[in-house]
Amino acid sequence: MGKEPQSELLGLDIQELTSLAQNAGEPDFRARQLYEALYRQRLTSVDQVSTLPQLFRRSLAEQFAFGLPRVERKFVSSDGTIRYLLAFADGQSVETVWMPEGDGGEAGDGTAAGDEEEGKRWDRATICVSSQVGCAVDCRFCLTATLGIQRNLTAGEIVGQVLAVLNDRQVRIGEDRINLVFMGQGEPFLNYDNFMKAVRLLVEGTGIPESRMTVSTSGIVPRIADLGQEAVRPKLAISLNASNDAVRERVMPINRKWPIAKLLDAARRFPLRTRERLTFEYVLLDGVNDSVEHARELAELLRGMRAKVNLIALNPGPGIDFGTPAEARVLAFQRVLVKAGIPAFIRRPRGRDIFAACGQLKKTVEDAPGSLVGITG
Ligand code: SAH
Ligand code: SF4
Questions:
Q1: Which helix (H) or strand (E) segment is 125 a member of?
Q2: Checking DSSP bridges between strand 93-100 and strand 149-152, what pairing results, if any?
Q3: Catalytic-residue membership of 230
Q4: For this structure, is 358 an active site residue?
Q5: 213, 196, 180, 159: which is closest to 42 by C-alpha?
Q6: Distance, CA 360 to ligand 1 centroid (Å)?
Q7: 216 to 8, 30, 75, 227, 239: CA distances (angstroms)
Q8: Is it the case that residue 112 has pLDDT exceeding 50?
Q9: pLDDT digits (tens, 9 = 90+) for 66-111
């Protein structure tokens, strides 16, 4: 590739594309053609947009790149999970994870088997999307936290991750069932406007239903209220991870700013749609938040809420000072919740062998044993 054009088209909505067309002296319908080419057809360069006149294409190509991230690395797990390292124009990169037939937080019931038979195509999949390079929230059990915050992703960069993976996996939207979980690197609610713009482009442009999208937050309380007011929005998951303030503060320092009472108050006010439920995520840390007493305390906190709990046994990582509880402890914890009438599911870790599982998303290129499958882009 030669010199980088100064701007990127990916991330522009129909209004912005319309002004772009108007400024170029083109009729408004050119904006719709570009929009379709970018988000629906998922083309990768201006030259491919055959609906546009040659001259307009050329002048666009001089000023703009499409802006899809480059697939820098691709790690394939034994369970079919693929971890993509995607690079942006400025050299920063994030990770995006493909989980075929995965529960990915969407079904959340751990029923989906990960093993793909030879030659059999997956029939549903979940893509785990990043919202920032690194993260500022500093949860003590999370590997992403150790990166610190590098920068926010633009709306185009958030959309671009999804499109790059859809293209690589040759997904046919409308036929294939795709779920999106905004649970990769970063705190989506600390990049709220870009994140929400990306959601709208993915729903309206790409055609992924909002009901198949879930965003997870560490508990940025004011943004929970904002999300509730959105006309188009994903489902909400809240990373609770503790049953009282003392423990939560220890593992999630952000609890000092927004303690459990405030967080649950916002959750209770969140306007749920028909048949919609809130999800609470709870990472089980051995001997820290995983006792039967903690489970009872959690059940008490969530009593009366239309909610389910996803239990995740800690995925360990270098520099993480917590342990993974034994299976029996996880099951005992789940049993207390279920007995109290709270649906609770154990999330199976996906792609743990290639550092693709929850909380492991850090640029672990050197130490990932997973097979490296080609370098494209
Ligand atoms: N920043 C957002 C979304 C990304 S983290 C959030 O925190 O909600 C996605 C989920 O992974 C969160 O529920 C988080 O609690 C969980 N997680 C983080 N580190 C983990 C680890 N080491 N093992 C298991 N789950 C982890
Ligand atoms: Fe950030 Fe979420 Fe990791 Fe906490 S768990 S540090 S909010 S990515």
A1: strand 124-128
A2: unpaired
A3: no
A4: yes
A5: 159
A6: 8
A7: 27, 36, 24, 12, 7
A8: no
A9: 999 999 999 999 889 999 999 999 999 999 999 998 444 444 343 3
